Amino acid sequence: MEALLLLALSILTGAGSQDWGVTLPADPLAGWSGSCVTIPCSYTYPEGQLVKAVTWSRNKETIVQLRTAAGQGYDKAERAQFLGDLQHNCTLSLNPLALSDGGAYSFEFQTESQSWRSPRAVCLMVSEHPCRVKHSIARIPGALNGHLICSISERCASSGLHWYDGAGARILEETEAGKSNRLSMRIIWQHRGAALECRVQGYRNRCLPKGSQPPATGRPPRLKVLVDMDGPGPIREGDSFTLRCVGDSGSLDQVYFWIHNEDLHGGPSRQIEGATLSHGGNYTCMKWVSDIGRAYLAISPTTYVAILVPPVVHVVATPGPHRSTGEPLSLTCRLDTSAFGGLDFSWYKDGERLGWAQAELAFPGVQVADGGEYQCEVHNTLGKSTSLPLTITVVYGSDWYQLSPGPMAGFGAGVLLLFLLSNLGVYCLARRLRQRKELGGSQQGGSREDPSAPQRDSLYEQEIPCAGEIPCPSDDAGDYYNSPKDYCN
Description:
By secondary structure, this protein is mostly beta strands. It is elongated. It contains 3 helices and 37 strands. Strands 14, 17, 21, 22, 24, 25 and 26 form a 7-stranded antiparallel beta sheet that branches. Strands 29, 31, 32, 34, 35, 36 and 37 form a 7-stranded mixed beta sheet that branches. It starts with a helix and ends in a 44-residue tail after the last helix. The chain is 12% helix and 37% strand.
């Protein structure tokens, strides 16, 4: 009721010459990303009112707000700044513009009696800046065999692009081609730990204060590689770790690259699960920061990541694995690397652990019982590694005895088979000689064997025709004779 009376009194006394209202640009506004834009604005209200708060919104979402309450000030959105006051000015500035800044902007102010919102919104359209420096990579097999290309739109009014090193000197190895410029990855590799700049010639940023042209000065980003591990100590085979590319500056438009040995990868970080020996080596990260009129390529120093794998262990016999009884023998547990310290040793014979914990197992005089399969095992806090078995054989007299049931059984079976075959050969040879002797005696006598002679009782004394000798029947009592002259052809 008091507010209505105050409003009626102001109208009657002529104090209400100013009415409620907000004045915004009539036409839509347009801007390029990376540049700046100012939205002019003014507001009026009847005299006698006191403004308590002003608010700017984009697509009905508050981005800037100013209140008169003590201890409160601007609630600024990123890149937005209120240039007005709590009187009649409501101008808003956006610097630098982002593509996401496009939308419908409206203004609202609040007095002690009521709130007033602009009856319409002003539309802001943001498009890509033609002088924004973009990048591309000409890939060739091998991470250091390609080129990094910086380029701008044909609509950008400039006299060309050039590469500069961290000290501001132009890199002469660049290759120009119209609105683009390429730089060898091998040249980039030589500038590790620095930041290279691709600069547009003739560009002037009109949003920057005078005296900072050309170009805009700024601190180039510095990068380093951080290695995050699951636990303390070195990275072992099978562990997981994460590589992070960390810099001291941020940007709206940035892209990350990783160079690992001869591979090129993307992303601000790399997570390795189940590390192998191939995951070790040199890591270098790069960050491309795109801007209007220039771009930075920050290159980190090289960080070496070591992956510890279990060593390859061998058992070495000196002088050799075949010895005679009583001769000396030395077995040594030998590693293929010297990068492991604090090692403990264990020895095994035929799968059973021996009570010996030194790298060398010595026999002053080996015996037959010392033969068998020997293995050594090395271990420390990082893990353990076991060698392949080495078979030790012992010679006794003129024979070799290998203490293994399988080979010994095979050797005995072979000796028995050789004995049987030799006896069979001797028997056949003796039988053949006896047959030839009897046949020779029959031919010298010129007469056949007397059929009336008594028959041999022994089975082994009977004449058995050899293969191919078919006896012919005789004329006497149906008997068969094995005389060569009676054989059928």
